[in-house]
UniProtKB/TrEMBL annotation:
Domain of life: Bacteria
Organism: Rhizobium aquaticum
Keyword Secreted carried by entry: no
Residue intervals passing through the bilayer: none
Catalytic activities: L-ornithine + H(+) = putrescine + CO2
Protein family membership: Belongs to the Orn/Lys/Arg decarboxylase class-II family.
Lyase as UniProt keyword: yes
Designated name of the protein: ornithine decarboxylase
Length: 377
């Protein structure tokens, strides 16, 4: 549901659309819910989800750490008030000069998933702490992650041994169960893999200290999702089952779950038309689409709640598309979207749950449509 603060902002400010408005009170509430759900885990906010300076400053002030994918994101976190000790360079694919720059800024925690990446860090950030990412299957995630990141558990053992041999601190392992994960027990199998890596390293005299359990915590779109507390209980039960009373330091990296439900995009209907006289379904074109911030509608994976002032009227299915001159700019066609039959050109629509992965996907003025404007209140 759109917060009253956002509705009041739209009414009083009447910003030109399309634009995103983020309610910082909702973000603060989400942070506190994660801290309550997993009180012994360190929260590393995934900056890529929404790097708005206001969001980063808020979270830095609340005590959050930051998971960064680039030097630019590291600098954003530092500018927001975080210290380098609160930053993880979590991308497993880094230029060596970027590793050196991050290390010069004081960052000392780096993700790896290969021998080659370890070699870069050993040269550019000698003595740094590294954690190795382990592959997971992502079953149950609405936005699954591919095999691009991570390696099989046995290779993770070899990578961490190699890091130790090159003078790095083999600090731990990480995994990511997939974004918008709807199964609270999805972390169990990955934690079992992590434990096996811990045991294998211990046999070789290397004591790992940390498990980075990644993100994956969902936000509510059209379907209800479990609470942060439900995830926390399931994850703690798995930690206890696999690690007993020797639970290591743990990290979580919420991104979507931290900011997704805090944001709403205001959009406008540009055109409503049909492709033939006997076409049963309308095409509804908005002034925002895949290239304007709704990239996660790719393969219709994320289905956002859409509200209009005509929602009490009769509804009908439609194809929902964006405004650009690219035929890929269609959000929902295989599973068409129900919108009011009375909807007309010029009507305002609110696209909810859009606080995460929207502005960051709208960085280029494709077709001359400017990047998505953002306001934090």
């Amino acid at each position: 549901m759109t917060s009253q603060r956002i509705l009041d902002f739209f009414k009083t400010r009447q910003p030109e659309g399309p634009c995103l408005v983020v309610d910082l009170d909702v973000v603060a509430g989400n942070f506190k819910a994660f801290r309550h759900a997993l009180p012994d885990s360190h929260i590393y906010y995934a900056v890529k989800a929404n790097p708005a300076p206001e969001v980063l400053r808020l979270l830095a002030g609340l005590g959050s750490n930051f998971d960064c994918a680039s030097v630019a994101e590291i600098e954003m976190a530092l500018d927001a008030g975080a210290t380098a000790a609160r930053i993880s360079f979590g991308n497993t694919i880094k230029k060596e000069r970027d590793v050196a720059r991050a290390h010069a800024l004081g960052v000392n925690l780096f993700a790896v998933d290969s021998h080659e990446e370890v070699e870069k860090i050993a040269r550019a950030a000698p003595g740094a702490r590294v954690f190795c990412r382990v592959l997971t299957n992502g079953e149950g995630a609405e936005w699954p992650l591919s095999r691009k990141f991570g390696c099989v558990p046995q290779m993770a053992v070899d990578v961490l041994v190699y890091a130790h041999q090159l003078g790095l601190e083999s600090f731990g392992v990480s995994f990511h169960v997939g974004s918008q994960m709807t199964k609270v027990d999805a972390w169990d199998a990955a934690l079992a893999d992590a434990k096996r890596v811990f045991v294998s390293l211990a046999k070789q005299g290397i004591e790992l200290k940390m498990v980075n359990m990644g993100g994956g915590f969902p936000t509510k779109y059209l379907k209800d999702v479990p609470t942060a507390q439900a995830y926390g209980q399931a994850i703690f039960a798995s930690l206890s089952r696999h690690f007993g009373n020797r639970i290591p330091m743990t990290i979580i990296e919420p991104g979507r779950g931290m900011v997704g439900n805090a944001g709403v995009i205001k959009s406008e209907v540009v055109l409503i038309s049909k492709k033939s006289d006997n076409d049963e379904h309308r095409w509804v074109f908005l002034d925002i689409g895949k290239f304007g911030g709704l990239a996660e509608t790719m393969d219709e994976a994320i289905r956002y709640p859409i509200r209009t002032e005509r929602d009490a009227d009769d509804m009908g299915l439609c194809v929902l598309a964006g405004p650009t001159c690219d035929s890929a700019d269609v959000m929902y066609e295989k599973n068409m979207y129900p919108l009011p039959l009375s909807l007309t050109i010029g009507d305002e629509v609110l696209i909810e749950g859009t606080g995460a992965y929207t502005t960051t996907y709208s960085a280029v003025a494709f077709n001359g449509f400017e990047p998505l404007k953002s306001y934090c209140i």
